[in-house]
Please model this.
Amino acid sequence: MIDVLYFAWVRERIGLAQESVETTAATPAELVTELAAREPRYAAAFADTSALRVALDQKLASFDAPLAGVREIAFFPPMTGG
Model:
């Protein structure tokens, strides 16, 4: 089980801020594939992963990073400083 957090327009498209997901995914990319297959709102949120960033246990990571031992994954659009 992994806690999945959604931020900004990802949260708006899915309609949830967070959820616990049972998964066999080995990477964030595999988890995205599983989630996108659930229903259209997830497919819309994950249609373009190049427009997303991912954090594993609150540390920025790549979509091919291992999920082994990770308790929390967050998906969010890139942020700008200012």
Q: What stands out?
A: The longest helix spans residues 28-36. Helices lie at 8-14, 28-36, 40-45. The chain is about 25% helix and 25% strand.
